[in-house]
C-alpha cells in the first residue's frame, strides 16, 4: 500500500524557508543602509577636515621669536606686605595750666626740635619766680649779718671776754642760713622751670598735624587731647611680615651684614625708596604664622606716609653668574618645565629645564640650557617638538587693536542689494530710490491713515497710475 506525503508538513517547511529568506533579505538591506550611512558620515568628516586644513601648510616653518640665555648676577628677593610707621610720634601737651595766648605753627608745617609752638600766659609763673628770687636775696642779707656776728663772738671768745657757747651757737645759725639760701636757689630753679613751661616747644623734629586747641582757650596739664601731634617723617619706618618658613633664610642673611629693603609704589613695579633692615621680631605671630620685620628708609621725597600700605621686598642674597632667560621661554608640561631650543637647521626641540626662581620678566635656570642656546619666546601655538621654525624680529610681534575695525560689505551683499533695488524699487531697509521712506499697506490693500497728508498710495496691480502718480483730489 502506497503512502502519500503529508501536505500540511510540506506547507510548514515552505513557510519556514520563506520566512528565513525574508529575514536574510531584511538583514542584508539593513547592513547596506548602515554601511551607506557610515560611508556618508566618513565622507562628511573628511570634507570638514580638508576644509579646516585648507589654509594650513604643514610644510612651511612656524614663525617664532627667539632669545639667547644671559649670564649675570641675579639678586634674590623675598616679597612681603607692610605698613608705614613713623619712627617717633609725640602728642604735644602743656605742662602747666593757663590761657593759650599764641600759636606759632601752621597745620602741616615742618617743625624742628626746640621751636616754640605755642605760648601760655606767664603772668602768674613770672610772679612766682620773682618771689623766689626776692626770698633768696632776703636770706642772703641775713646770712651776711649773721657772719659778722659770728666774727665778733669768735673774737670775744678768744680774749675770754665772751663765752664759747655763744660763738658756737652763732656758727650754727650761719650754717642754717646757708642751707636756707640753697633751698631758696632750688625754689628759684623750680619757678624758672615752671615759667619756661609757658612756652610749649617741639620735642622732636617732624611734621605738625592738625591743631587740637585754638588760641584763647584755657589748657591744662591733665588734658588728654594735647595741643598737636608731631610725626617724624625723615627717616621713616616700614613694618612688614614674611612667612615663618623664611626665618632661617633671613637670619642667615642678616648675620652676614645689613640687608637692603625696597618699597614699591602704587603700580607695584616702581621702587620709590630703598632702606635697610633694622630689626626682626623675637617671636612668630601664631594667628597668621608670619614674622614681623622693621626697616628704615630716608624718605627724602616724602613718598612714604604713616599708615600707608606698601609692597616690600627684602634682598637676602645674590646668585653669581646665573643663566637667565625670559619668563615666556619657560613652558610647563605633564613632565615639568621645559623650553624649546632651536638647533641645527632651525629645528625646535623640547629640553627639560630646572628653574631656581622666576618673576614677571626673567627666570633663572639651574640646568638644561647653555649660554650658546637659542630658546623660543613667542609663537608656541603651532609649535611642537621637531618642527622647523623661522625666527623673526622683535618688532614683528603682532599688536592688538585698540578698537574694533569698521566692517565693510562683501561683494555678494552689494550685488544682492543692487538686484533688490532694481526689482522692487527700494533697498532692503525700505528706502526708495529718491530717498523717501515708503509706507507698507495696512489692511486689505488700503493705505494707512496715520501718515502725512499727500503721501502717495502703493501701486496697484493692473492700474494705470505709475509709481510717481498722486491721488486725485
UniProtKB/TrEMBL annotation:
The keyword Transmembrane applies. InterPro entries: MdtA-like_b-barrel (IPR058626), MdtA-like_BSH (IPR058625), MdtA-like_C (IPR058627), MdtA-like_HH (IPR058624), RND_pump_MFP (IPR006143). It comes from the Bacteria. Residues 128-198 form the Multidrug resistance protein MdtA-like alpha-helical hairpin domain. Residues 395-473 are annotated as: Disordered. Residues 88-231 form the Multidrug resistance protein MdtA-like barrel-sandwich hybrid domain. Pfam families: Beta-barrel_RND, BSH_RND, HH_MFP_RND, RND-MFP_C. This is Efflux RND transporter periplasmic adaptor subunit.
